[in-house]
Task: structure prediction
Amino acid sequence: METLVDDIGSFPLPVEVNRDTYNRAYQLAREAMINGQDASADPFIRENFYNVTINSFKKKIDTGLDVINSPWHYDGIRQVSDAIHKAMEKGTFIVDEKDALLPEVAVIKAEAKNLSEELGRTISLRACMFGPMEHYLQEIGTIPYKDVLEGFAETIRRFAKNSIINTKYVKTEVISIDEPSFGFLNIAAENDVLREVLEKACDFQGAVRQIHLHSTSRLPDLLQVENIDVVSFEYGASPKNIENVSLKMLADADKQIRVGVSRTDIGSIMAELNDRGVPKPTIEQLVESAEVIKRRYISAKTKYGDRMT
Result:
């Protein structure tokens, strides 16, 4: 499999856009889309959400990425948990199909023709969302209730399925299920239960199914999940992660690997610089050099070869 360059969802909100105003516009846009309305027709939504999303996506395109993640400006947990809370009012943890919608992806789909023509090719899209275990930890905690876990898994499956686009202008190449707490803070369930949960969450077709971890300490537990095509981990922020995943493990499980070679943990970088006497770092100090990123890439590619995607 060819190694491609992609990015994560999180993206800085433009300084001229007020956070509370953006959040309100996001929520109104989502409600309009769920009701089958044209969210862009509302001037408030267009200015404070719709255009912000398109402009951020264009900035990502301009970097030359092979696969471009839809931009996150809204709280990543709330992208899904707002809908979960709505479902909970009806006595269930399973979100209605029509409510399982990421507004950012819907905007890109609506503007795909213009974006594709500007780019000169079909847009290769990556859509990501926090997974069932992360949402369970946020809402319930570490004590396992299998039926609730299965409800969260079905909700994530619906969000994932509804984020898959396949037109002449845009194609969702990857759906990434992010489980940042797994390996640090874990649900006290048997491995078989967690594997069943992820099998259900990733039970969709039409895009590469990826799971992204911040710790690889329990990554081997996930290699038997048949519906996961690619396992992914942070390398730039956590160099020791690469020690826990061997090429043989991937080959035996017939999995591909994605490696995050550039640090995106800006908060940690700022704290490190502050400890070194730099309380107000410049952009140049916050962004790693191309040489550092390239060195990590070569190290990972040397280890994983064609298994690295």
Summary: The first strand starts at residue 68 and ends at 69.
